[in-house]
Amino acid sequence: MTGADGAAKALRPRDAATLIIIERSGRDARVLMGKRHAGHRFMPGKYVFPGGRVEPEDRRMSAAGALDPNVEAKLNARVQRPSPGFARAIALAAIRETFEETGLAIGVSDYGPPDKTPPGVWARFAATGVYPALDDIDFLARAITPPGRPKRFDARFLVIDARYIARRVEGVVHAEAELVDLVWTPLDKARELDLPNITRLALDDLAAALDGGLDRRRTRPFYRELRGKRFREDL
Q1: 123 pLDDT exceeds 60?
Q2: CA dist., res. 190 & res. 197, Å (int)
Q3: CA angle, corner 204, sides to 203 and 205, nearest 5?
Q4: Contact, 15 vs 54, CB < 8 A?
Q5: Of 48, 90, 136, 179, which is least surrounded by CB within 10 A?
Q6: Mean per-residue pLDDT for 112-136?
């Protein structure tokens, strides 16, 4: 895209959400990462956490429980239109994208599926019998894709424990899918994978947050680029 003077015009970042699933049954914490298809324009062949942009349906989806007040406040920090609904949509987008890309349904199965769901991915999610749950989701970091990239996202990295994987749909990850491989990897081994820079930073932030006991009151890092300079600020 170019402006009237022929100069490249920066794409407007789209709100997006990424979910880091942590498994802590052993001595070392492990995270779930997926390898992106080599044919993608955005981060081809890289290992990432599942995620994608927020869709209108995420604001209409029912959920069990509510976000922790500290998490909600941090998700609403420095946004144009802060609201409980905005923070909630971010968290539900992370759950929906994780299900769409991995087949993992995050939530609880005690209540049965929601009665009414938006069509598409959320309807398929509900068919697993799982109700998406928000109360144990944490917020790790925020990052805006620098200008000049083929796609730009205002991404929030969220965290959930693996014990909230309530169902798994098989056959979602394959050679022609968005994610062609899934791996559970310890944090130190994850850094040896082919990672985007922001994913590497998120792993460092996760290690620090885990060392601090995932205190919900902590500050969260916010990564962005202004006039060619990269900044790390606190939310």
Answers
A1: yes
A2: 13
A3: 90
A4: yes
A5: 136
A6: 93
